[in-house]
Amino acid sequence: MRLHTLIFKLKKWIKILDNRSKMLLQSFLIEEKCRFLSNFTLKTAEVELPGEFLLPKHNHYFVRISRFMPRVDVVQKHNAAARRLYIRGHNGKIYPYLVVNDSGLADARREERVLQLLRMLNLYLGKQKFTLQLALACFAEYVFHLTRLNPDMMYLHQDSGLMNISYFKFDVDDGTGELDTTRPVPFRLTPNIIEFLSSIGVNGPLTASMIATARCFVYPNFKVLSILKPILRDEMILSRAKKPEDVTGTNQEKMTDAEQIINMVNKAVSSISNRLNSLAQFDGIDSKVGTLVAAANSNDNLCRMDPAWHPWL
């Protein structure tokens, strides 16, 4: 009974303290606590925003404190109370900062140094993410005979660093209705992309990712072929529908068209399967992917591409 009574009293006091904490001030004026910060302007001194030197930017682009906003919010989260301070930079933007009175400030400084290290590593992590996604896009463009990848088809999300490719279609020849296999470069790997990824990134993670992706598609290979056949069938039917047809065609001719579509689908699936198997094989330093990468960044092949493809980007 004593334990039950103690638990009941604790619950009662928790509710009372919660109600009392909600009755406290949610904000106050900075002038009441520190008149110097209230009167601070850019003319008083040129002071950079806290944490500006941790960002990988040039010295010309450091944001300086223009003034401190008059109101300070009281934030109570995660069993801690903090003050949210708003600072207006000289660029016009308002930056919020949390001010915490913590007795373990020494440990916080140690954690902050680790965060500084992780922030400096963000550049390499961003390159790694872009390399892996570009490898998947190049793999899909080459293996599935997709249309050429133009710069306006690539979208990079600034918040996550993810890359999205739009307007990809099967590259079907209008004359023959088959997948087009004649292209100077197998996929987009222009000099600027190589400069960003570096030669180590191209010959290392990019090549290895394409080989690993090919092996994932090959084993077990029957799943990929089963998925490709209905998709390519619809694509071939649409390609045949674009051609002018004779309305007086007989049933025999329609049967012939159906057989031609089946043959075209089987031929396209066979071509994709051959490319998958060739990329999945890896014997030492020699691989099909290495040959494709060399062909993609060859200046002789890039100069043969259509200028609308922007091979210099």
UniProtKB/TrEMBL annotation:
<protein>
    <recommendedName>
        <fullName>Non-specific serine/threonine protein kinase</fullName>
    </recommendedName>
</protein>
<feature type="domain" description="PI3K/PI4K catalytic">
    <location>
        <begin position="1"/>
        <end position="280"/>
    </location>
</feature>
<dbReference type="GO" id="GO:0006355">
    <property type="term" value="P:regulation of DNA-templated transcription"/>
</dbReference>
<dbReference type="GO" id="GO:0000124">
    <property type="term" value="C:SAGA complex"/>
</dbReference>
<dbReference type="InterPro" id="IPR003152">
    <property type="entry name" value="FATC_dom"/>
</dbReference>
<dbReference type="InterPro" id="IPR011009">
    <property type="entry name" value="Kinase-like_dom_sf"/>
</dbReference>
<dbReference type="InterPro" id="IPR050517">
    <property type="entry name" value="DDR_Repair_Kinase"/>
</dbReference>
<dbReference type="InterPro" id="IPR000403">
    <property type="entry name" value="PI3/4_kinase_cat_dom"/>
</dbReference>
<dbReference type="GO" id="GO:0006281">
    <property type="term" value="P:DNA repair"/>
</dbReference>
<dbReference type="GO" id="GO:0005634">
    <property type="term" value="C:nucleus"/>
</dbReference>
<feature type="domain" description="FATC">
    <location>
        <begin position="281"/>
        <end position="313"/>
    </location>
</feature>
<dbReference type="GO" id="GO:0035267">
    <property type="term" value="C:NuA4 histone acetyltransferase complex"/>
</dbReference>
<dbReference type="InterPro" id="IPR036940">
    <property type="entry name" value="PI3/4_kinase_cat_sf"/>
</dbReference>
